[in-house]
Amino acid sequence: MEAEMIADKKRSFERSYNKPKTCFSACFRYRFVQWLKIGLSAVICIVAISIADTFLDPVMEPYLGPQFGMGPGEVSLMFLVTTGSFTLTGPVSGWFSDKFPEWRKLQVAVGILFTSLAFMLMGPSPFFPFFESNSIGLLCGALLLHGVAIAICLVPTFSILLDAALDTGYPDTIDTFSTISGIWQSSFSLGETIGPFLGGAFLDLYGFSKATTTVALIIALSGLMVLMEFLIFFKGCSPADRDSSCNTSLESSIESGPLLKSSAKINTYSSNH
Asked: Where in or outside the cell is it found (predicted)?
């Protein structure tokens, strides 16, 4: 008899223990799926930006050495053009992203499209036959634009991911920040792996001009995707909503609407009685 009572208590404890765990797991899966719907475009953009940032690593020295007779010192200075412009533009990009959070996705889209343009100018691309080929001035200008554009589009991506997580119900805690930071770093690392591989492969297959053109077209697709998402978002929000960042999802607004109306009716009824 005593053994049966102990077994019943054990089963009751297991049910009470597993129930919240199952509920938490279901809530987590739902929120994660909802977050993917909102934040997936940002993840794709982070990967694309990282590819653009690392594509030139295995490409510059094999191209600049034979083409312009540059040694290791001159090649490192060419890399410095990109990193220097990124360093100077990064704080400005961060300030703009914090000042105008409702324009973050447009900022990312514009930055990616300018990055694509920079790659087009490096070759220069066959689409730009009017530019002089083998021009060191054009190449330096393209590298300068490349660094500025990367800073414009890369800086707001973390905030976009974080906003997407908070909008889908994740708490504003250090755990959420850590999770988003891990997703951001994983996405960027994936691009860092793909970028040099594509750079070396495209250079061997197509040459420098066609290689930069190919990666420019690939990157431009992600920019157009986030631009279309921003335009749909912008068209669906009123000016008042855009001023307040318009971060509330459609589902939450539908759910909160009847609650607000019912609350207003209760307040009206209370004041009349």
From this structure: Membrane
Please, which residues have CB within 8 angstroms of residue 154's CB and are 6 or more apart in sequence?
Answer: 46, 49, 53, 93, 111
The tens digit of pLDDT for each residue in 110-138 reads: 999 999 999 999 988 888 888 888 889 99
Spacing of C-alpha 200 from chain mean position = 25
Which of 152, 197, 173 has the alpha carbon at shortest distance from 55? 197
Q: What is the pTM of this model?
A: 0.74
Compute CA distances 106 → 83, 111, 112, 227, whole Å. Answer: 23, 8, 10, 6
Q: Which helix or strand (DSSP H or E) is residue 121 part of?
A: helix 104-122
- Please, what are the domains in the chain? 43-245 (1.20.1250.20)
Most confident listed range (123-137, 215-229, 242-256): 215-229
